[in-house]
Amino acid sequence: MTEPRAILIRGARLLDPARGRDEPGDLYILNGRFAEPPPAPPPGAEVIEAAGLVAAPGFIDLHVHLREPGDEDAETIETGCRAAVRGGRTTVVAMPNTRPPMDTPDRVAGLIRRAEEIGLCRVLPAACITRGRAGGTLAPLAELAAAGACAFTDDGSTVPSDDVMRRAMEQAAALSRPILDHAQAQDLERRGVMHEGLYSARWGLPGIPSAAEVDIVRRDIRLARETGGHLHIQHVSAAESVELLRRARAEGLPVSGEVTPHHLALTDADVRPDDARWKMNPPLRGKADRAALVRAVEEGVIGVLATDHAPHTAAAKARGFREAPFGVIGLETAVGVTYTRLVVNGRMSALDWVRCCTVGPARVLGLPDPALAPGAPADLVLLDLDSERTVSAGEFRSKSRNTPFEGWRVKGRAVRTFLGGRTVFME
Ligand code: DOR
Questions:
Q1: In this structure, which residue's CA is closest to atom 7 in ligand 1?
Q2: Cβ count within 10 A of residue 134
Q3: What is the CATH number of the domain that holds 312?
Q4: pTM of the full predicted structure?
Q5: Whether 349 and 209 share a structural domain
Q6: Residue with CA nearest ligand 1 atom 4
């Protein structure tokens, strides 16, 4: 799409958490950056009448699986980026559990190059903590950071060895990169496929106890205290993990966490044991866990909403609940599901919700606070937060369809997304 270099957006509701602003106003984009709005549109400028829409900094998603290389039948960098910008994201952190995994500087640099060629969305690679994501020996963290890795994680599994994790945190701290941990003890995870509780017993499915997560969160916080490294717990699912995070943050430790739309919206009671669209890792937990997660976001203990967008083919998900891979997609439903659950339901303000999608994740990565401020890159999303829509996977830009939200009525969707002033999605 060829684009005028000047765009005037008039009469939007500006949600700019970095500056604490929630007010109607105009935005002006000049040569890819925000600039002071002129009193009248300059000749040749595109004018967007945005009354009734919200304008917010482009969302940052700390947890996305793009599947390339290795599983391009489920997603590619390009289809993942298309899904991301349709979901109002302008930056995504790509998980390293590709095949082969992101544990060499060449692969990290290759991902950055490919994403830049596509040019739809900023893709920040998270690289492996350990070689081959196998948990045994550290990957070359300094070289990976130099190649552009924004963080380290063995997502899909934790690092079982305390010693390896401690050294990873020390090195990551020296490189000013966070460690993102998929906190789940492998001996407690066993061969579980859903939360261990009433429903796993009812369905006769092997369970994963909350303790699998809580034990590793406790260990990781201890290591963060000892090393001073930034620890970020991925997809927090259990109430007890929230309490550990709350105490660690009260202690002043550099510890953060994220929560997914599915853990905020669903519980193990929703699991359909004949349908692996409700199978993900960590699993959907109980009502008290979900309530604790909502409270954690409301109170700012967890300041990041992240999707854990995990595409899988229909064939893989059709293998049955025990055998199908873990994971649900989320890029194109996150805005609607989280806005409806958190803001429409009266748990938090729209401004705080935007903060969890922008400033919160930026701070984990050590990026400047995204803002609708003159001089900042014009990464921007225009949102319709008022009209209700039905989730329909048939409309997704993602290659995959594994969502548990099919048919849900939700409020809130992106209608236009700009990356550096360029339109990368328009409804
Ligand atoms: O549900 C999940 N799917 N959890 C993970 O940790 C990995 C992810 C995937 O890669 O499919």
A1: 156
A2: 14
A3: 3.20.20.140
A4: 0.98
A5: yes
A6: 281
